[in-house]
Amino acid sequence: GKKSLRQKFVDELKHYYKGFHLLWTDTKVAARMVWRLLHGQVLTRRERRRLLRTCADLFRLVPFLVFVIVPFMELLLPVFLKLFPQMLPSTFETESKKEEKLKKKLNARLELAKFLRETIAEMAKRNKADTG
Questions:
Q1: What does pTM read for this prediction?
Q2: Can you tell me the distance from the alpha carbon of 83 to that of 78, in angstroms, rounded to the nearest whole number?
Q3: Given CA atoms 91, 93, 99, 102 in this order, what sign does their dihedral have?
Q4: Which of 2, 5, 21, 54 could cysteine-pair with 26, CB 3.0–4.6 Å?
Q5: Tens-place pLDDT, residues 16-36
Q6: Cα–chain-centroid distance for residue 114?
Q7: Any idea what the Cα angle at residue 35 is, between residues 30 and 37, rounded to 5°?
């Protein structure tokens, strides 16, 4: 059924609370990784990717906080998210946004594979014509 305005508001607050909590946890883990880097240890590829993602999320948090702090500015947040879809930190993404992003990435990969297959087939035809 439909949710009431109060329930939608509570759900949004929970979503942002969980997002900030995940970002705080990621930041603590990233701080430990930086500490390890400063003491000469080497990070794995997975740790490096997580560290980069967390740093990017912290930089994305600055413009996002402006919307949270300035009164009534959060009403403009959907407009800015439409203009700049990567503005939110990754911990604030909903499942539907993640699925949408994965679908776009999969479609792009399929198009690339189709292009490469056609290119290879065309090159094979040319080579066959040249040798034949």
A1: 0.62
A2: 9
A3: negative
A4: 54
A5: 889 889 999 999 999 999 999
A6: 26
A7: 95
Q: What is the DSSP string of the chain?
A: -PPPHHHHHHHHHHHHHHHHHHHHHHHHHHHHHHHHHHTTPPPPHHHHHHHHHHHHHHHHHHHHHHHHHSTTGGGGHHHHHHH-TT-S-GGG--HHHHHHHHHHHHHHHHHHHHHHHHHHHHHHHHHHHHH-
Query: Which tokens is 83 given?
Result: 């203009």
Tens digits of residue pLDDT in 82-109: 888 777 788 777 777 778 888 999 999 9
CB 67 within 8 A of CB 80: yes
Give me the amino acid identity at 132: G
